[in-house]
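User: Structure with magnesium ion, tokens only please.
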Amino acid sequence: MRPEILFPLYAPVSTLKGVGPRVAPLVEKLAGSIVRDVLFTLPTSVIRRTATTVDRAIDGQVQTFTVSLDAHQPPSRLGQPWKIRAWDETGFLTLTWFKGHGPHLERQHPVGARRVVSGKVERFGSEIQVAHPEYLLPEDRASDIPAFEPVYPATAGLPSRSFRRFALEALSRAPDLGEWLDSAWQAREALPSWRVAFAAAHGPEGEADVHPLAPHRRRLAYDELLAHQLALAQRKASRRAQPAPSIGPSPLAADAERALPFKLTGAQIRALSEVRGDLASGQRMSRLLQGDVGSGKTVVAMLAIADAAGAGLQSALMAPTEILARQHFETIAPILEQLSLSVILLTGRDKGAARASKLSGLASGVHAVAIGTHALFQDDVVFKALGLSIIDEQHRFGVNERRRLQDKGPAGDGGGVHLLAMSATPIPRTLELTVFGDLDVSRIDEKPPGRTPVATRAVPMPRLPEIIARLKAAAASGAQAFWICPLVSESEKIDLRAAEDRAADLRQIIGSSVGLVHGQMPAAEKDAVMADFVDGKVSVLVATTVVEVGVNVPNASIMVIEQAERFGLAQLHQLRGRVGRGARPSSCVLLYDLPLSETAQQRLDILRRSDDGFEIAEKDLELRGGGDPLGLKQSGFPAYRLADPVAHRDLIAVAADDARLILARDPELISPRGQAVQTLQALFDWKPTSPQHDAG
Ligand code: ADP
Ligand code: MG
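Assistant:
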């Protein structure tokens, strides 16, 4: 499978010169197990070593001095460093080593010798130190010290400089590969060839060369994005090739729509028609319905269920928690039952005869729809003719769980079941293709009418008493509120205490209608408190962030979030989305600790100004930069090695288009470019079957 030309890169790291049995595990930990991984590990920054005099030593900087050695000072007791006192005409410099290099040092660097020393300067009071100098050379070899050096990731026992040697050797083994880039585009973007790009990446000549937007870095990032998009596109294509029953719009759905007390929004109509296009296609649907909390995804799901029922097929709707499942049931069942469709709720609570009767109804086809929790996965849950499975808050389920529900299809291999996943996690548009590249995505980007925007204010913690006083007045007039305490410390116990203390405080002022839910509570207890809140028996619900995203409590109109600066913006937005659903004007109070950093201030400001989850997610991404800004890894976000999804986001859509085109023109990848593309895929090991993210 692997092209021969890549063999040198697939060799284990131990084949690199200098990587012996002691070093190999360190290299593996840092980079990975094969030479390719070392090649793919790029310098993260550069240091410039300025040659200067001791009086100009700057704490924390890497500098180079020319000094005379004055005295060796062996450690006075264990744990003390070996020191060499050195000087130039402007002052004294102490060189220190913490391991027993003493005799060796005395031999190599005798008193009176002139040396060029380079390393990171540390000041302790009046003492100027260089600990473990990176260079200590006779004066005539000063030119051996580079003025400028790339810095690689390092780990204990494997300093950046050693890793650099391995990286350069890995580079020397990198072959010239056939070009997979479209030549016109490559020329326009002025991107170097693959081999040249790696040479430039490992041989930076200035700051600009380690910048993600340097042409060679963009080239390498693009390669990785393209490899990933190709894999996603291939997976999508193979999924499309699976047949599934063709389901047309049914009169039942038209009746259900008429039974709604409202008109669908334009965005809902659009999403529904996209779903219907898939259902009617004869190919298996894998569609993600994305929309802010409260945007009305459930109705779209319900109408798809009605279509399936019209075609004589059953549907399963699965939610991550019992309370959500029950809410869906209460929304959907009355409408569908008017149409003589039997809908059941199946959760962990169903036991014994009641459960058995529900199961037999599903197996015989008496029930058209099952709404439930993980209980729907159980092996003894058998459908007569499952045609559509819907997964709410899809990121809360693992790939296997989703697949298990699909496996309940008629063929038993999941082939025949249409999948509709729903999510309220606003993935910025620019990143959507990397997260959901193998799903079709419909967005509900419009809220149902009549929602008043949630008045959002940021309030410093010292004004807490004022907020509590207002909350008390609001509760007295029948309003309900969420009060969110963050999980911040290392210890969940401490966080829990903070939430318990807050609940106790509020109870003292507001009264016994203050409830508490947290992640450590048994599910049944948690559900009971949530249910009391839904029913209005609890007026203020104190919660750690476990509050279910999808829970609908129309009467709740106040959201207070403590230490709001600790949350991701997307998360704050989702929390805020739980209020503003009813007739009462709603408010969201973002409590923050003083002092607030400028970025934190800007972030909270975005939230005050915007009510659009996608826009907020995009801005948050800009402000927070790289890494895993939105906690996306959990949503199946790939761990790129050369691409930075934020810095290189302009390349994502280009790579997706490119991948589509490549596969459309040359599905077997046999043209010269196609063969180069195969090499690219082998290079990244992104086989279409590897489950980076999989809708099942
Ligand atoms: P989501 O699951 O997207 O967070 P829901 O489907 O729970 O949102 O809908 C939130 C609320 O909005 C529900 O009470 C629902 O009945 C209502 N709703 C949905 N669509 C509309 C619409 N087009 N007009 C008015 N209200 C709607
Ligand atoms: Mg929902």
